[in-house]
Amino acid sequence: MRDGTVVKRYAIALFEAARDKSDVQTIEKELGSVLEVWKREPKLVEFLHHPSVSRDAKKRTIARVFGDRVSGLTLNFLYVLLDHRRQDDLPQIVGEYRGRVDEALGRIHAEVETALPVSDEEAQKLRSRLAQKTGKDVSMRLEVNPALIGGARLRVGDRVWDASILGRLERFRGQLKQIQAR
Length: 182
Known about the structure:
Helix content is about 65%, strand content about 15%. The protein is of the alpha+beta class. A four-stranded mixed beta sheet has the order 2-1-3-4. It has two domains: about 5-105, Peroxidase, domain 1, CATH 1.10.520.20; about 105-180, Glutaredoxin (3-Layer(aba) Sandwich), CATH 3.40.30. The two termini are about 40 Å apart. The chain has helices spanning about 5-20, 25-40, 40-50, 55-65, 70-85, 90-105, 120-135, 165-180, and strands at about 105-115, 135-145, 150-155, 160. Belongs to the ATPase delta chain family. InterPro entries: ATP_synth_OSCP/delta_N_sf, ATPase_OSCP/d_CS, ATPase_OSCP/dsu.
């Protein structure tokens, strides 16, 4: 990412255009599928960067690859990114756009790492507590990470709550280093 401010401007502009058409969630889904192709097909990204390929040829390729999968708004947005040589910023723009959609719809995403598998009942209890505490709709991704040794680590946005044994050991190690440095 070259400039976070520019990324936000593109995301906000797309969000406002989508909101005007009442298509915020549709555009979010389309951007997700575009991003999947972007990540899965490095040759496409390489082609779009190639200096000897004309902008029109790049746009025709974008239309062939995505034309039947996305709306005109999303397709035109991809063209704008090409015109302004911002295609590298697509993953960050999509992330920022999703953040705007989440804010508008009152949702949050939580990533939960646990040392051992969590039952569906435990996961639902955690989701309910998060929804109660935040007042928002919660989508949750669970991941088993045996390296945590025990406990769990929760990430919501840029906040992390670490109640794992690994986290406790790391904090303890930091305290020991501070004592040794004295």
